[in-house]
Structure formats: structure tokens, C-alpha cells
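Thread: Modeling a multi-component assembly for a lab meeting

Hi all, long-time lurker, first post. My supervisor asked me to bring a structural picture of a complex we are working on to next week's group meeting, and I have zero experience with this. I have the sequence lines for every component (383 residues in total). Could someone generate the structure of the whole assembly? Inputs are pasted exactly as I received them:
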Amino acid sequence: MIDPEIEKVVSSLFNNEISFSSALKKLKISDKQLQELIDNYHWIPPLDKIKQISKLENDSIALINEVIQKEEIKTQKSKPKCCEVSIRINPLSPRESDYVIPRNFISPLTPVIESFSVMGNCESILVDTQRNSMHAHARTYDHGFEYWMSGRIAQ
Amino acid sequence: MTIKIVLDASVLIDIDTNRVNLVDTFINFVNSKKNYEIIMSQINFDEVANLYHSEMKRRLGKIDNFIVKPLDELEFEKFSSHIQNDLGVFINKADRVVLFQGIKENSNFIATSDTGFFDKINEYRTKKGITTNGQISPITTIGMLNIIFKAGIIDSSVFFDKSLALFKYKEIDSYFSQVVIQDLKGDGNKRNETTKNHIENLQWRFNFYKKPLVDEYKNMKRLGLIQA
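Re: Modeling a multi-component assembly
Sure thing. I ran the full set together rather than chain by chain. Output:
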């Protein structure tokens, strides 16, 4: 446990209120001893700094959105433009089922699926952004039929 | 482009707590996103105690883009002397190692959950005149989670859930244990004033967690993934 008086001086040093030499004078210790105190000190920013830090953290999030989004778009460009889209069938109205698009496929460059309809149970849908088309491998389990369907993609 | 992130031990400790439990998510992220390099100094990796985190450390040790680097002692001494004597930036040794590693690796981000260290990275950047975004930019664990989400590893529901879990089980705990108790001394008036300050500051901290979630919700609505 650090002595409160020593703690006060080291904290002032971390807060940029005093210099290293002033800290040495106040504590009357050697350079090496002060360095050891610095090396092991866990600094907690003063309360008025927390607001500032929170604002900076929000800026970092905005930066992440910018940097990662660019990176993900680049990665998407270098990969085949296909992805699996899962579908939730509405048994009462199969033609109005919902699509669930993987999160990593959503970007400003990602086309939005404009319309699509499926009858029966759908196993998977393949979105091909290069050809602006979408195909579903659908299967009606009741009758053992299997067929492909297509949909439109809006850019 | 490879995105380099240097991690402070505090981030790994955060993600490997029972109630937050982001280890599988993090490992999945590092494993499947080879355009990211996650770097730690050996000293910081050793700081993550084997007793509590051995399984996570073992699994991370097997991933080729999770890199643990030995510290170049000589270079580190020069760096320490420079930031203290020339810049007047005082940082404890464990955190200084992380900053040193971040600079040496020319990393895009340095991730830490320690607000004090976060502020010190920013102080260093200011004093060195670093204005480039994505050059040793400090981020917190919530920032790291945001990267994992933006990289498409988790969906929005997990992102929302884990962000709030981090606030509930990590932020409040660390805030009260580190800040409040030592300040709640003195007479009644002083205590009331201190408590008021703490409430206000914790509300600021909550806003930091809330904003990315609300922004994402709006984005999903814009894309038509959520019905109004």
C-alpha cells in the first residue's frame, strides 16, 4: 500500500501538474526510487477527465466504423460476390417470407433484396451481386418436389 | 491491408469473465479474419494469469495471426527515457510496454480497458503531433467488440447483449471499486457532492456504450432489417 503523501506526488506527476525533478525534491528520494514508483503506479484519471475520455472513446468508435467498413468493402470486392441467405418461411403465406442476411454482407455497396417469393420450404438462397440475381434452392418436403426459383436485386 | 491491433492484458481479462464470456467470439474473430493481426508483448500476455485464463491462452497460442512478441529491452529503455524526459508523459511500466509495442508494430489500434492508459495514449499522440486516424488510435474493449461486430463475426443481437453485459458486469464494477470508494471520504456535504459527480460521470460512461447500439439500430432500420 503506497503512502498517501507519496501517492499524492506521483499522482500529480501523472496529471502533469509537476515535473520529474519537482517530484524528486518533494519526495527526497533517488531517481531510481521515483522510477520504481512510476513503473508500478496505477493512475486513475481525475473525475473531470472522464467526460473527456468518454468523448474520445466515441470518436474511436466512429473511427472504427470508418476503417473497418472500408476494409470489409475491400475484402468483399476481392471475394466472389455470393453469400448464403437464410429464410424464415411464413407457413400461412409462403410468398411473403422474411430473409435474414448475414451481417457481414451489409455495407453501402450491398444491394438490397427488393422482392423475392418462395413456395414451400426453402433450404438456401444464393445471392449473386455480380449478376444482380438471387436463386433459391427450394424443396417441398410434402410432395418430394425440388425446384429453383429466382428473385430480383435492387442496386 | 492488414489491420494491426495491439492488446493490453486488460482486454483479454475482460472478455474471459464468466458473465461477459466473449472468448469463443474473440477466437472465432482472430481465426477467421486473417487480414487482422492481434499483437501482444510477452510481458503483457504473461500478465493474464494462467490460473484463471489458461484455456483461453492455450487456444490463442495456436492461432497464427495472434502474435506474442518478446520485448526488445534496449529499445524499450530508449523509448521510456524519451517519453518521460522529452515529452513528459508518465505511464507505468506494464502500460508503457503496450504503447511501445503499438508504436514498434506501427499498429492501427491499441486496445485497453484502462481509462487511465487510454488517456495516456492520447496524451502521447497529442505531444507527438499524431493526427492520422488509425495510427496507434486508442480503443477500449467496447471498441474491440465493435470491430468484431463490423467484421461480421457476431450479429446485432449478440453485439447489443455483450455491450450491455460489459457495462453491467465490468464497467460498473471497475468504476466503483477503483474510483468511488476512495473518494467517499469527508463530511456529509463533501460526500453528497462527490456522489453527484460520480453519478454524472457514470451517466457519461453509459452514453459511450449506448451510442453505438442506437446508431446500429438506426442503420438496421434504414436497411429495412427492422420493421418500424
